[in-house]
Amino acid sequence: MSTLAHTMMTAARSTDSGLAGPGELDRYPYAETPAVDRIGASVWESAEPELGRVGRRSAGSRGRGLHGQLVQQLGQMIVSGDLGADRPLVPEEIGQRFEVSRTVVRESLRVLEAKGLVSARPNVGTRVRPVSDWNLLDPDIIEWRAYGPQRDDQRRELSELRWTIEPLAARLAAGHGREDVQQRLADMVEIMGHAMGQGDALTYSRADAEFHNLLIQVAGNRMLEHLSGIVSAALQVSGGPVTGCDRPNEASLGHHGRIVDALAAGDGSGAETAMRQLLTVHPEVERVVPAPREH
Fold it and tell me: CA-CA distance, 101 to 109, in Å (whole number)?
């Protein structure tokens, strides 16, 4: 096994805490919302009991720490519809419900505002925004939708979007002929093969994600590169509809290898075809995307 493969097999998870720095003060005030318009206790009580206090569930929270966990939990509640559109969010009530400081609440709401989930206005306060305002390409929102009531729509949309993005990226990447990138892609296939033999799904998924991200980056199209986060998020979402990347098997590994071979030969058409075949390895995907084109 190569040095790169060994490194990836033993790499530790990121320990980024995502906590606000000490002394970080409120940057702007939230208007006090009239009591009659505030969130009722029943809204919070309807949530999972495990959400009662931030800090009990850290797995799956990208930011870790109190700030990251609160973003995760509020985001999931908004995306699931537990906190509907135009619902007022009062920092004091959120802080009491989740037992976190006002600063953690405010920073979390700012993150959600950047994702288009909430808006803060003077004399109005913070309110949940309608779905039409959400940044649906944000990796966190993709994940929250994929595990909520909209899971089927989200997974279908991801499959359709990947079908548009990745075959094109594979075709474009074949025109660049960078040996270092081709070697890196070949290394990822080697790692995936070794991980599959060892039953190491985590290492397989990491190598798979790097393979697809690298392929998009080397395509030479910055707009496509900007969409690489969508592919990363899609690879982390399990359940159907699925693609050949979601479940390690010999067919999936073979298609990855054929993509690398086509890139080495400068065969854009072959690389595109291999990618389309990879995205339709499983029968259920064929209901979402058409069969691979013949060239």
Answer: 13
Phi and psi of 276, rounded to 5°? -65, -40
Residues 234-255: pLDDT tens digits?
777 754 444 555 567 889 999 9
Instruction: Please write down the HEC assignment for all residues of 155-190.
Output: HHHHHHHHHHHHHHHHHHHCCCCCHHHHHHHHHHHH
* 127 bridge partner residues: 88, 119
Whether the Cβ atoms of residue 19 and residue 101 lie closer than 8 Å to each other: no
Rounded to whole angstroms, the Cα distance separating 234 from 41 reads 35
Q: Which residues contact 106 (CB under 8 A, 6 or more apart)?
A: 26, 30, 91
- Amino acid identity of residue 185, one-letter, is L
Could you report the per-residue pLDDT of 195-239, keeping only the tens digit for each? 999 999 889 988 998 999 999 988 989 888 888 877 877 777 754
Residue 190: CB partners within 8 Å, gap ≥ 6? 1, 2, 5
Structure token pair of residue 290: 């058409």
Per the CB < 8 A criterion, the answer to whether 123 and 131 are in contact is no
| pTM for this entry | 0.65
